[in-house]
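WARN retry 2 of 3 for item q-0093 after timeout on previous attempt; input resubmitted unchanged.
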Amino acid sequence: MSLDDAAEELASDLGADKAEVKEKLETLQSYSVPLDEAKGSIRREFGDAGGGGAATPSETDVAEIDTETGNVTVTARVLTVGTRSIRYDGDEQVIYEGELADETGAISYTAWTDFSLSPGDTITAGNAGVREWEGDPELNLSESTTVTVQEETLEVPDEVGGERDLIDLQPGDRGRTVEVSVVEVERKTIDGRDGETEIKSGVLGDETARLPFTDWDPHDAIAADASVRLEDVHVREFRGVPSVNVTEFSTVEPVADVEVSESATRMSVREAVDAGGVFDVELVGNVLEVRDGSGLIQRCPECGRVVQNDQCRNHGDVDPEDDLRVKAILDDGTDTVTAILDREATEAVYGGTLAEALDQARDAMDRDVVAESIAADVVGGEYRVRGALSVDEYGANLDCEAFEAADDDPEARAREFLAEVEP
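OK item q-0093 returned
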């Protein structure tokens, strides 16, 4: 049944305006709520219990649930519980999210009402909906779902609770708890969904990794060099890497000093690219080429974008500002990545300042001479680079915070590689 047909049928049953009913259906569908469940929700909203009284479905193992499964009854252990708010039908809606598991597998869930779930609970969820979320099935616990806490604990192979190291976090994680040190933090105002919004953002670290974070309800305890325990955070993808999100539902408590690793995660280029993005990674490879758009460039004074012929894509005709940049193709034999150096790093590679680069270009009457000079120095050399790697439809890019000549012993590195691949 099409959405339009469903809206017409439902509006007729309820004696309501079709356009209003269709708008509500579209809103629920935008959150991947199954159509039958969306219709039931709207019936209840209009005070009509009809159409929602189907018998409770038979019990199903988690492993048997797929995106085509209808409503189910599941007995499972609550692994994690996270809380956040979304904008639904113009209003703030608090939802509860996490993972459930039985002996056969684990599945994520979203609860649209507070069932007072706690990690470790064994529950039976009756008449739970199933929706598709990022290609996987997810349980939808709504007002028509019954949740009963069982006295007997269900033993499952999965870890109960949300405590994780930063290295283990993945986009989509909910209800996570981490103990971290605040490596960098700044307070700023952004244009949020309710207008100007004050947030904190920066970098968190522990012994395993560093990750960016955003605190949407600025907590005083999140301060530079502070060590804190963050409970009930969720993880989004930001520029291709996991980003920790702290909200008004998160608990922030000071803890004893958390050690932060000074070294980045060492990976091959292929490993980093296949990971889809790594916030703090170290790569070693040879520079094959210095790409166009390197050397002297010009940026828009409003947004900082690179401009061509004094034209900014966002702001039109501008009076551009000069800058330096390097975009170098790095190859380690497994794959390639574009290493991007900012002005400071480019000045170090160039061996001169922006002013000196402008003088060289003026003397040669050619701005390209700066990029050519840089290429002559770095192409063919082996370099160790560190920074945040992201992957998009245009390829892999690494925003470098370090770019230096490699001092590894190639023979030792080859032996190390062979030791990893040999049985």
